[in-house]
Amino acid sequence: MESLKDKAAIVGVGYTPQGKVPGRSSLSFHLEAAKNAISDAGLKIQDVDGLLVQPAMGDPSVTAALVAQYLGVRVRFLSVLDAFGASAGCQAQFAAMAVAHGLANYVVCTYGENARSGVSEYGTALNGGLEYGLFGPAACYAIAARRAMHEFGTGPETWKEIAVAQRRWANLNPRAAMYTRPMTYQDYYDARILVEPFRLLDICQISDSGRAFIVTTAERARDLKKRPVYIMGMGQDHPATNPQQATFLTGPTGAKLSGEQALKMAGITLKAIDACEIYDCFTYTVEVELMDYGFYGRGEGKDFLKAGRLGPGGDFPLNTSGGLLSEAYQMGFTPLTEAIVQLRGEAGDRQLGVPTGTREPEIILVSNNGGVMQTHSTLILRK
Amino acid sequence: MMTSYTKPLPIINDDNRQYWEYCKQHELRMQQCNDCGYIRFPPGIICPRCHSMAAGWVKLSGRGKIYSFVVYRVSYHPSYADDIPYVVAVIQLAEGPRMESDVTGIKVEDLKVDMPVEVYFDDVTDEVSLPKFKAVS
Ligand SMILES: [Zn+2]
After folding, report:
1. The whole model's pTM is what?
2. How many distinct structural domains can be found in chain B?
3. B48 lies in which domain range?
4. Does the beta carbon of B109 lie under 8 angstroms from any beta carbon of chain A?
5. Phi and psi dihedrals of A164, rounded to 5?
6. Distance between CA atoms of residues A102 and A95, nearest Å
7. How much is the ipTM here?
8. Contact B42 A197 (CB under 8 A)
9. Any chain B CB within 8 A of the CB of A245?
10. What chain A residue is nearest to B43 in terms of C-alpha separation?
């Protein structure tokens, strides 16, 4: 069977206002993001013939047919896709398959939510436990993080490096929620402890906003407005198990198998990766996923992860928009869209390469994780 | 009788009703697969190891140790506001499965991973008894 390597490309990306944006439905964010992605790609509404929609956790009323209806598109490839935080990477993969097989020419992938100002379901437990007061995803990941402290000696000393490095990137990104707010190590330690062992600054912030991207074939991509970003490699691994019985809370998470598959398809090793955009719902998530991709050994995050390396000017650029922690919570769309913008050279002050004293970005690894590390997707993107 | 219990109660459905019925009788029982012996939790119709639908409810010793735990330092729900700081733990049961629960009778500062614990039942309403754990030496 023919590999999907380099068969598909991402050709459009759409943002919306983000942060606290009251008075808007989650549907409205899907629509605005899709509109902006279509325009960014230089496509007409009539060109769109595929649509994959990730509904917000708090708003399952947004179906794929509803988004199509309001976008005014008639498509031949349509679905809701929900693998929690891993969805964006999964959407890109299904879209790549569809265009490679001629089932659609231009697949628009959308996300939208208004959980910051509207109704938020993030307070409810994903996998039960309400009767014991287990509220919110932070506690579920804090359980994993505590176990990791016990098993391989991680903790706030390591996590602060991730938080501070990502904030330095956010300080270069006008779109980021934390653009004007620097963070020192002391700020990190001074932050309120919400759910031990996590401080406020270990935890991402919910946003109102939407995001979209468009996938087409490599051939079609060459004739469009923007420089194509090719999908070199892809993988998914969904361990799925209820977190109570999970063996993966301290790794190996789905990052290991989905990463191995994606690297194999791309025909590269980790050495070829110029930057990482890693789903960072919590600081610990970044540590365990980079470990599972193989960038360092078990428990070696504390030596590897230093803000100087991870931030602007560093040799291991990480989450260059500020990520979920310091830019905006847009599920897997945050890391994915940032990789696109960086590979196109449109990242402004935070642009990888000469502007930030980092390697010129040729290849970026995008990691998406969802549930309590129950779902995972990997993309390897290149110029 | 504690009719004034305001905290969220378990969402009882056709899959887990039997589990909560046993809890009401102060018995910690989980489904054990008749074919491969795997003890599964939360309750469900098939064994995730071998897909057998044949299972019985095995009585567990109620002994285990803390696999991991978190301490809420802020309230995420009004009914827990007066309980801050409170713990939610994952208990590694002696027979293999793990479960989320509460560990009581110990200061949160003294909690440690791998600490041995033992089950007891808290009759929070007439209808619901929650299995909780206390530290044992
Ligand atoms: Zn079985």
Report:
1. 0.96
2. 2
3. 13-59
4. no
5. -70, -40
6. 11
7. 0.93
8. no
9. yes
10. A242
